[in-house]
Each structure stands twice: as C-alpha cells, then as structure tokens.
Fold:
Amino acid sequence: MGKLHFPLSAVAAAAAVLCSVASAQTFQRLGTCPTLGCILPPDQQDFLAGQYFDIRLEVHAPVNGSEATDGRPDENFTFTVGKVGDSAQPATEFFGVDEPELETWDFSWYEDLFAYDDDRASVVNVASKAYRRVALYEPGEYEGVLSYNGTSTTAYWRVRDLSETRKAKNVLLFIGDGMTTNMITAARLIAHKQINGRYQSTMAMDKFPVLGHQMTHSIDSFITDSANSATALYTGHKSTVNALGVYRDSSEDTFDDPKVETIAELFYRITGGHVGIVSTAYIADATPAALTSHTSDRGEYGAVVDSFVHGIVNYTWTEWSGPDVLFGGGAEQFCPPSQGGETYMDLNYYDVFRDAGYSVVSNNTELQAASDSDRLLGIFTTSTMTTWLDRNVYTDNLEGSENSPDCQGNDATDQPGLKNMTLKAIDILQTRSSADDDAGWFIMSEAASVDKQMHILDYDRALGELLELDDTIKASINHLRELGELENTLIVVTADHGHGFDVFGNVDTKYLNAHDDPRKKRNAVGPYERSGLSQYINTGDLRYGDSNFPSNWSPRYTLAEGFGANPDHRENYRVHKNGPRLPAVNISGFPEEEFFVNPEDAKSGFIVNGTLPVSYDQGVHSLTDVPVFAMGPGQEIFGGVYSSIDVFYHIATALGLSRTSPPETETNNWGKKYGSKFGYHHYTEQNPRYGPPAQ
Amino acid sequence: MGKLHFPLSAVAAAAAVLCSVASAQTFQRLGTCPTLGCILPPDQQDFLAGQYFDIRLEVHAPVNGSEATDGRPDENFTFTVGKVGDSAQPATEFFGVDEPELETWDFSWYEDLFAYDDDRASVVNVASKAYRRVALYEPGEYEGVLSYNGTSTTAYWRVRDLSETRKAKNVLLFIGDGMTTNMITAARLIAHKQINGRYQSTMAMDKFPVLGHQMTHSIDSFITDSANSATALYTGHKSTVNALGVYRDSSEDTFDDPKVETIAELFYRITGGHVGIVSTAYIADATPAALTSHTSDRGEYGAVVDSFVHGIVNYTWTEWSGPDVLFGGGAEQFCPPSQGGETYMDLNYYDVFRDAGYSVVSNNTELQAASDSDRLLGIFTTSTMTTWLDRNVYTDNLEGSENSPDCQGNDATDQPGLKNMTLKAIDILQTRSSADDDAGWFIMSEAASVDKQMHILDYDRALGELLELDDTIKASINHLRELGELENTLIVVTADHGHGFDVFGNVDTKYLNAHDDPRKKRNAVGPYERSGLSQYINTGDLRYGDSNFPSNWSPRYTLAEGFGANPDHRENYRVHKNGPRLPAVNISGFPEEEFFVNPEDAKSGFIVNGTLPVSYDQGVHSLTDVPVFAMGPGQEIFGGVYSSIDVFYHIATALGLSRTSPPETETNNWGKKYGSKFGYHHYTEQNPRYGPPAQ
Structure:
C-alpha cells in the first residue's frame, strides 16, 4: 500500500454531491479532485502566458469506503486540450510532446475522524500520466478533458491577457510571515509615540500609497500554511498545505507532483534578471524555498537547498543558475553529516555553493566586508536566526544558543539582522545587475519569525520581528533613493497568512502579580478607556537612532493580547526575558502527543485552557485576509481586494513577464546546465529519506 | 464633591514625566491634559476650515495624591490664540466673542487599581471657562496658550488646507459597527462558493476600487468605543470613550463639554444638503447619535433623540433642522413614559417628530408604502432591531420578542432589514434633494449588530449582519445606478473599531458531540489542511435570489472561531438556533458584578475560561486598524493607512465643505430655529436624570 495521506474534496462524486460533502472535510481523498478523474492543474486555474507547468492526470478507483468501485482504474484514459470554442486535440499534439508512460499506485485515506480513530482506511487504486514542462501562450480560456470509464472530467483554464511591457526594472518583495493588519496596529502602538491621538511618527508600511488585501486560502482548505501560500504568491497557482511550487498529486513520490514555474524562475529565464533570497528563517524553510523548489513536501529540506543552486533537475524544467545572494539561517542543511548537518546526498553544501561560484560568509562582520561584485551565500545560524529582541535587548540569550553556522555548537553572537542582510542584498544585486546590462533584480526578503514567535504566543518577540521588518523597509527605501534606483523599483510588502491575534486592552502587571486568585488576576486587564496610552515608548532607556522600537519592553502597564485559538497555556502578559516562550509541554505519564500548560512559563499568570486539539503545543494559522502595500512602478494594480495569486500576476505584469509566443531557442536551453553535474536526475528514487512535513 | 470619574494622562506633570507615567494608566485625571493646565481641543488637533467648535479651559489643583498642590486653582488664568509666527491675541479679541464667566468645580479619580480597591480617591479642584461656537478659517498652524500660576500650557492646532471644490453630490457612508477585515474574510467564506481556490462570487466590498485602513484609537486610550470612534469619523476630532461630538471635560455636567461640528451639521449648514440616518440599533445608540449629539455621555439617550430633530439648543451652536429620514430601532426613547418609554422631558417623541413635519411608520409594510416626498421617521422595534438570522432563518425567534415600536410588548414581526431601510432612504433623499435644486444628500447606514453580536460571541449572527450589510451595499450600488446617481455619489464603507475575532479551522460537530471529555472534544477542531472547504454553501435549501448568504447555517463541519479575549463561556461552535447567545451569567450567591459560564449556553461544548475581568459578561473591542472601502467621486484619497479622523476630512473634501472665510450672514442664522420652541435651553440643569454610560 502506498503513502497514507488525508485529502478528499468537498464534493466526493458528481452523482452524490450532497451526501458526500457532509462526510468528507477533515480529510480529503484529493482536494482538487471531487470526481474520480483528476486533472492537475485542476479546473478554474489561471496561467501567465508562457509560464511553464506540468500536467498530472489521475483516474481513481476506490477499493472500499463510501465511494467504492471495482477498484480497477481505467488505464486507457485519454486527455484532450483546446481553446474553448475550438476543436480539442490530444495533449501530445496540442503541446507537441511525447505520450508519457502510464504510472500506477495506490494510496489510502480516512473519511473522517471516527474512521481515523478506528483506523478504518479507505484505499484507492490510481492510474496516471504526467506531461512535463508545457506552456500555454495565447491568452484566453482553455478546456482540458480527461475521459475515463465512459465519463469525463473537464478543467477550464484561463491564460491571462497581460501586457508584455516591463514597467519595473527591479522588484523588492517583503514578506512578513504570518503578519496581519492587527499585528501591524499593535507594533505601531508599542514603537511610535502618540500625543492626544496623533502619532508623532508612523510605520514605513503606513506610508505606502497603495493598499490591498489578499485572500490566503488554499486550493483545497480554507486555512493555508506558508509553503502553499508562498506558492500562490510566487507562481499564481494556489496549492495544498506543505506543497512548494507544485499541485499535490496522490502519489507517494514527493518530487513527481506537477510543477508550476515561479516568479524567480520566470524572471531569470525570460529577462536574465538577477535574483536575491533573504530570510531570517532557516533558509530551507517554506517561504524562501518556494522560489526555486518543487515538491509536495516542504520537509525535504536538503533537496530544497539543492534547488536553490541547481534548480530542478529530475525532470525537464526551466533554466535556473542560482540566486546572486542567499542569506539566512539553516546551516543544518549545509554542514555535512560528519559535522552534524543533514544534507542532500550527504554533501557539504558550503562546498557545493563554492563550487558553483559563491563566496561564503557566516557572520555579520564578514557579510559587511564581502564584495558587492560576487555571488554570496550567507548562512548565519544552525537553524532559525535569533530574534531581534534577543539580539538587541535581551542579548544574554545569545550566550549558550549553540546556534553557530558551523554546526559545532558554538554561539552565533555576530548575526546580521534582516536590515543588514537586505541592504547588502540590494548592494550586491544592484552591482551585479549594473554590470550585466542593467538586467534588473528581484529580491525576496522575509521576516520569518513574526510567524514563528506568534506560533508560540510570544507576542513581544513577534512584534519585535515585525518592527525589524518595518525598519528594514524604511532603510531599503532610503538606500534605493541614495542609489538612484527607487523610481525603478516596485516595492511590495505582504504576508502569507495570519494568526488570530489582537490587542484588547492593557494589563496592570503590578496588580496582576499582587493577587493569587486567578479571577482577581484577570481584573488587572483594562479594556476601553482603561487601556490608556502605550507605555512602551519614551519610558525607558533604549534608543535606536532613527529606527522605531519600544524604549521599554517591560513597563508596568503592558498590552493585553490574545489569540482566537491557542494550546493550554498561562498568561501574565509580560515579556519573556529569558528567551522565546514555550507555552505548552508534554507531561511525563501522558501520551507523547498530548500537551498541557508549561509549568515553567509565565508563572505569575493565570491559566487559559486551549481551544485547539490537545496534540498542538502552539498556535495555528488563521483565515484573515492579509494586507498588501505597494509603491513604485506598477503599484496602481495592487489596490483593493484580490486572491493571493494576483500578487504573482501583478508582479509579473510590472516586470512584463507575459509571453504570448514561445522563445525560438526554447528546446535547446533548458534543464541542461546542472542536470548531470552531480550525477542525479531523480531526487526521490535515489534518496527518499526526508522526514514528514513540517508546518 | 463632584462626579467621580477615571482619567489621567500618560504624563501626569511636566516635571515628573517618567515616574508619573509609570503609575497612571488604568485611570487618568483627564486624558487630554498631562499638565495641570488643560486646553480643549488639546494640542495636536486638526480642524476643517470654518468648522464650528467650543473651547474649554481648565486649571487643575489636585488636593491630594501624587500630584498634590495647595488645592487652589488659579482663577486668573489667561488664554491667547494666534497663528504660529504671528502675535497672539486674547481669545476674546481673536474670535470676537465675549469673555465667558468663570466656572469652578471639583472631581475625584483613582490613581490605579490599588487605590480603586481601597477607595483612595484623589480630589482635584478646577477653575474653568468655555468659549462657545468659534471657528478657524485660514489654513495653517495655530497656537493657543493657557497661562496660569506662572506657568503655561500650549496647544498647537492645525487647520487643514483643503479644496473648497465639491466633487461629490451625494455621500453614502456605510458603517459596519465592530467590523474587521477578519470578519469580512469569514463572511465571504460562508456565503460565497469556491471551486479549487477560486471564489465564484465575492463580496460587494471586495469590488471597491480603493482600500484604506484607519486607526481607531481614542485620544486618550488605545481602545475606543463606538461613541468616540463615530465622533472621529464624523467630526475629524478624536475624543474619549462614551463622548459624542465633544472633547470630554472634567465637569459633572455631561452637556457642557466643548463641541465640534459634525459632517451632517456642516453639510446642512454650508450646502443646505439633505441628511439621512439609518441604523439597525436603537436609534439613540452611539453611531447614529454622533451625527447630531454633543454630550460626554452616550447614555443620555433621550437627549440624543431630541438632538436628531432639534439639534443643540442649550448653547449657541450650528444650524440644524432634522434629517430627512431617521430609521432604526429604539422606540423606548419615543414612547412616552405612560406607554413604557423613557423620553427626554417625558414627551411623546413620535408626536414631537410629527409636529416637526415628519410622517411616522412602524413596520416594513408602512415603510415601503410611505411617500418619497416627505420627511420620514421609521422606528421599528422597542430597542435594537432583530438580527438578519432571526428575521430570515430562525424566524420562530420573532415570536415572543415583545419588541414592537409601540412599546406595548407586542412582537415586531414585520421589521425591515438594513437593505429595505437604506433603499427607502435613498429614494426619499433623492426625491427631496431633486426638489431642492439638487442639493445632494448624505446618508449614514449602520449595520449595528455586527458589533452587538460579536460582543456576545454569537459569530453566526454577527456574520449574518455583516452579510446583510454587504447585500445592502450591493443593492444600493445597483439602485443608484438605476437612478442615474451612482456617478454622483461617493460610497464609503468602514467600521468604527474591531473585535479580536478570527477563524482558525473547522469543527466536526458530530465528533465533538460524540465525546464527553473536554479534551477529546477539542480534537474535533481541524486546522490547516484539515479545515477543508466551507460547508455553509450549497449544502442546504435556503436561497436568497441574487443575495449571497449561507444556504446551511448548521452543517456538520462548522467554523472554528474565537476571540483574543472573552468572558468565561463554553464553545460548541454551533449556530444558536433559539436566538442570540448569552455566554456568561451571574450566578446566585456570587457578587452581582461577577460572571461565569452560562450553564444553559452551548451545552454540548467545552469550557473556555475567560481572559477579561470577571465583571465582563461579554467580549470587548480590540485595537486593530479597520478597513475603508471607497468608490465614486473623491475615492482616490481613501487609499493607504491613516487616522480615523481622516475619514471625516476625506468626506468633507469630496463634499467641498472647507470654508476659508466666515459666511456673511453668520451671526444671524444659527441656533435660533428651534431654540425656544420647547422652552428649554440647558439640558442638564433641568433634567440630569439619565443613567450611566453604556458601552
């Protein structure tokens, strides 16, 4: 039996829509496939003209369960494609590709939580084919028809009609991972002073001329993760939780899912533009990964790192030669296993990048000293980089972090912040682009730990990360202005999803501490007029030049903050001075997957029981639309409310990446540059050893 | 001793900034007055050129507490005004008004919660004067200096330099009370169908071309209420919780606080335009009230209703002759006491309105039949109107509501919805404006129970109200298009504050119900990929023509929803079919002001302990910036992030209400129309009997 996974569309079978819907939601057979014939990309998908993608066809034959058939999928299925209104052709003719080989597999899933508890799996046999690296050039509506077992599934696809005229030379895309409007409001409150209701300064984001909202939901679930949402932002295609740059299919192989070309790949292939990738996460994390990776499992960290430098080599795919800069944490996927890392093919990826022409730096001093002319890899910590609060206020926490990028258990005490990394990225990209006929650049800069700290309910650290992002935006705008590139650069700031966070008043921590009764402690909370003004500003000694951060992180009156959902935990609404919070823990004697209030966390507080499954030791993502701030050439189309995929189409429009006819040399220039260099052509078959997906 | 109230600025005295800040937050002496000399409007306030306002000066002499003085306020204080850079003049000369009489009073407050628990009040003696109905015409910066006790307080005021050219003939302002981006996202999810990540329809709000965010904080606390926030939206002046159209002073009199002219008053006085007021709340509630009321206590409901028809008559003030339409609930302020109402001066306000030329209707049938040519009062329920969900789905709940507008305890079974009221308001305003030289109109239409239902954690009813608002917006746009007025009308949709609401997954209610262990019940929650698709759409029988509402409010898989803050309550994530929820109650034997889980609510659920003071039986407002959607003439300035007061300035700009010189007839045409008709000139002294402020 194949991999066990958990999908089923809301509409299980055409003939039994209503009853199936009612019983398939927590798990889905394959979210994008309500019938038994599956086309990926599925119905209702948009494409950039000329964007490369793969097609996966699957015919499902459930063996048991509510959809049971004879268990034999039709292996003689056919697939035709055509513009709506034109005659359809077999896909091989339409795309000019060879007929792919038939693949078969099986997988199993659970119809609901009762089946899961009882381990009553439903098994599905599958017949499948995949067409690799095709494209649609002519704008308009297309129709793909999968015929099987005397029935058929139709997918309508739309190629958007976008200008090919480039408006922006450069794009600087900032992503505040997990950042919502609510969090921006809270960060403003603790870092910018008010007098009589007037802010004396505001966030850099607040000054952007154009504001939009994007809807973050997945293709098959209304809550997304960062892999899936990054895929939407970078490719114009929504996908499934944990998927990077692919539509998730039902096969066990996490590297054979149908791919879609990303904004980085398109920008490089079509314009020869330069790409930079910056994140405060371990660099194999989803948001940076989705620029070059194509896998249904974001947990394939080693392969992700390989894709940064080599692109995709297991199938015919687009050109890619590596970013000009790659800055972040995550040495654990660079140090060879002999030094404690876990790398793709057990290689030393510092060496792999050096062999590919990269200089390598491992701390801020080296970063600042590095040449602006050379490609640069900067890996500054073993895993996720240390938060702004610990690097700048509670600096003792840097000691004993054992987080150095040599994976030797030393402390990474000289880490750059997001601002250091982003400004250096701009310098290098600008220098190298200028030396390359002013080809222009695309930089993605991610404040990853807004999300990571919100997950662990560490409000202070999360808001510190958000303020560091805002400070980076401000500094980047000033720096681009100095370089004379501001007017050539489209700057977009957005998020990939939210957390259900908000501020609802203040807390008199002195009063809270003075009482033992949990109900008395709650009376320390001051809503409405009792919230008063922010005491984080101008009430302490910390100063940061022209950057706006709180001057006092532990005033008597703190913010009362909370989430729509949380694990069991305790709240005392005080900054966690000894390092990031651990709200919930497993307790000896209980099942490993069950979590309770951490007895060591927020000891002076009162207990808040959780609203999440007890297997969650941290918070989860939420539904809310997230903001998009835009300034620069092409900004005007970023206003209003739209889908996350539109961020991709808007950026592609600004860069003029739409191509309504194939490049003349197309068949000779892809997939060859690095394909044989390291002797591997299929990730999974050789190396299917990466762990389960992370969130 | 005077009234006991609870303010003190973040900066208690100029000489002791840091130490005072640390100890004064929950309560404030007077939030807008950090020193002992108070100018209202205080420092940093903006004005529309020609906007009428009052000035209140106070000199404080604390008798005891951390700021103790000799307790004798300087009664010989002086006040000068001038443009910055010009020579200052005494206020009497500058504004051409008589020197007002000196007033004195005292008040007391608590320095913190410890003082409150111990009843250790701080007493302040006050000397004060008030200048009534002045205006600043010339754009620029002004400086007001209050000199007292050998020291002084300075207020810098700014008159904005705005065009006097009118762009919009009409303004339609929709307010979703308490509505956030998070709630819009959730409402979209339950009312609009998705296929493979593409919405098949979207909200009317989603289609607006311009999006902004407004910061909702108060002048003296970071969390606002609806009175204060409506004041900011309508006057361009932020104020204090519970205040309507005034800056709150420290006197006991809730009708002597310094006023600011509202958008409705300005529009009528300057252009002769027609005003309409529509709300699903009792009509004396804060959001409608703030258009014509001026009091520091929103709880003065009777006086609020009087102000709708008569405007302000206790002091010299602006012209006002009543709105063309006033539609909503709240008969309790119209029925005379003999019929169970509680009205201003014990009058029958149906009669008062009839005497002022209004027709009166009391149900939807009468509303639809009413002439479009006459001024119309429509009061449809005793108090707040019934929710969309109860009027359209769980209609049994209309029976026994005893909510009829005759205050006789009958059921109001023929209530109009927000759409009915708003479309009728448009028809009447359009007819009357057309007959009056096309003077144009301003309509405020409020979906009040988004807020009211969110307060009681009734997610379903709150989202129903939000969807009704959206449906009203859609229908209004279509109707204006039919009338040929769409291109003449600026439509603005916004909120006054938020609640910390979000959706974090789905809930398998069947699984939740099947378990008794609260921790097992929590495992019914499905985050991320387990959230699946919305089952509220196309899974039931309810249909609403071209309006988008859920077709099934009780699917097996519901939304997992929550707040950042809540009272003790229980969650089962199911619609409350028997009427609005009551999450927390007082329990016999405990103090009256202490609330616990309601044993009768959500019985199948699990308990979630509260994070609010135990005196709260419902949720509270939150900090988040709220969205602003704009379309029509003047829309272009509504993009980006700004203060709530900018909504006023943007609307005033679209209507061209700025006036840089006084009207020639000014001294002869204000405050006279209704001032003596009922023989009262000072609300409070005659009638200080209204209860404490509501929230």
